[in-house]
Amino acid sequence: MLAKLNVVAVVAASLSAVSAQTFQRLGTCPTLGCVLPPDQSDFLPGQLFDLRVEVHAPVNGSEAAHDGKPDEKFKVTIAKEGKEPQDIAKAFKIEEPKLEKWTFKWYEDLFAEDNKTPSVVNVASKAYRKLSLNEAGKYTVTLEYYGGEKTTAEWVVRPIVKERKAKNVIFFIGDGMTTNMITAARLLGHKSINGKYQTRMQMDEFPVLGHQMTHSIDSYITDSANSASALYSGHKSTVNAMGVHADSSPDPFDDPKVETIVEIFRRITKGAWGAVSTAFLADATPIALTGHTRRRSEYGPLIDQALNGMTNYSWTNHGGPDVFFGAGAEQFFAGKGTYQGKDYYEAFAKKDYTVSLNKTSLEKIDISKRALGVFCQSNLPVWLDRNVYPENLESFKNDPKGGKKPALDLPGLKDMTLKAVEVLHKRGGDKGFFLMSEAASVDKQMHALDYDRALGDLLELDDTVRATIKKLKELGIFEETLVVVSADHGHGFDVWGSADTEYLSKQQDERTKRNAIGVYEKSGLSQYTEKPKNLNYGTGVNFPANWEPRYAIAGGVGAAPDHREDYKVHKSGPREPAVKSSDGYVVNPKDAPNGIVINGTLPTSEAQGVHSLTDVPVFAMGPCQETFGGTFNNVDIFYKMATCLGLARPNTSSCKPKKM
Hints:
By secondary structure, the chain is α/β, with parallel strands linked by helices. It is built from 16 helices and 28 strands. Strands 16-17-15-14-18-10-19-27-13-28 form a ten-stranded mixed sheet, sandwiched between helices. This is alkaline phosphatase. Belongs to the alkaline phosphatase family.
């Protein structure tokens, strides 16, 4: 979900809010001197990055200082542990960049926002582009300004590891997926007898299980953009940012960049890479593989970056994806949704991509060629609507060519992923491949409090993982492929019992309705695996045999707007739990009208649920699997995958420092 930007309307810089306080002048910059990448940053040996330093001079507010005049004669040095500091430009043997100046505004707190009294900050800054550190160890960057004030950043370059243990990596992301959701999905899709499951989820069979912490760099609740960026680059960032450390400049595309895993993989190995998602392809998780901006809503330019790479600065040429499958046609057919109104179907075709707009054409593509597949507008309809209630598809106006007809010939996550593996295996050859495959609507339906649809997509993810492992074995590449399944963040979802949906709907009193909830011994057994007479969805094993049992799971999230719950599947289509009123978002009178009113726990400006603090699981199988056990930071996913691929090595094509 796109996190809201809490910014002043007149702010030139889309600064992220929220950390220890509601607003920040600039995340990671508690003093008036800012170093980006900031303190505690890690780097892969040879990984490209930009360095930006800023000196702030607040004009008004509690921080007002220096008459609003930033020090333009600041000094920046870098020192490896045990060595003398060197001027940053001389250390990297580059020309001193020009001085940049700008002004931005921000609110110090909610009172200032209510009173519309922003604080004004003048800035002096420099950006040092396309650097890399090739020697492992600790480094200190020091910014000196205002005649004695200092800001320091301690950096660590991880060890050099040139040995390549995995030829390929497949990284599955269940967006928003938590252990509690996996547990609930297992209950729905797998039969239990006397407390023992008769079948297991594919994730249950992975040999290694770990957990990752998902905090942002300047807030403990993350969004999908900067969490994906952490997973792909090893650098935490700010909400809404990807592939950069968010600065305060007016331009959302000039923030200091960090090189992502597919950029490094292509630079070093020349192998193939691809992305598959059930979201629109410009959405955070797929596009963060190549995206470099602090504003994730720049959908058109981000698709251009995916195809053409960075065009405003010298940077790694990732060459474009070998596979790009998903939705979001409005960023491809010519119109207001694309970069400069261009036709990106045509742009991809001109670079010798096959272009598929439906499942039928996807199945027939030439796997020796690069492939684009865009199957509808917006997000792909969820598994439940595609497989159990397909009549709902008729109500969509999501033709991938831009019309208002429904897209009906749709692939699922499994179809797209298996075809992607075929293409990448063919094109990568001896050089290998990297694939990211995302089940996006686990998150999107959790936001909408549509738990059945979320869990259906989670079961689709597990089914896709199972089929992919089978495909790897058929291709003879299972032993040389690292498979990782994880999430980018979580939601506070859990199940606490069962709900007698018939009894609940027939009660008139709110408190009496709650007696329909069965807890402990009254929760009973799952009815989702009991097949009713004359009902067969044709969805196969490992999926529910009955999506409409009388006794449904009673579950929910801790963070939600006002809404009703009747615990029944929403047969007619995706859920809208709250609607806007003059007093913010309130219970949708058309949603679960016979349900229980659940008072919201969020600001009345929030229409949906939000992300939570929870750690998320990490499953690993294949080369380097043993490194994924335990609990670790989300950035470590990047370092573990990159090291397994042999990418932790010096860079010969960047501005690198002389011996320190």
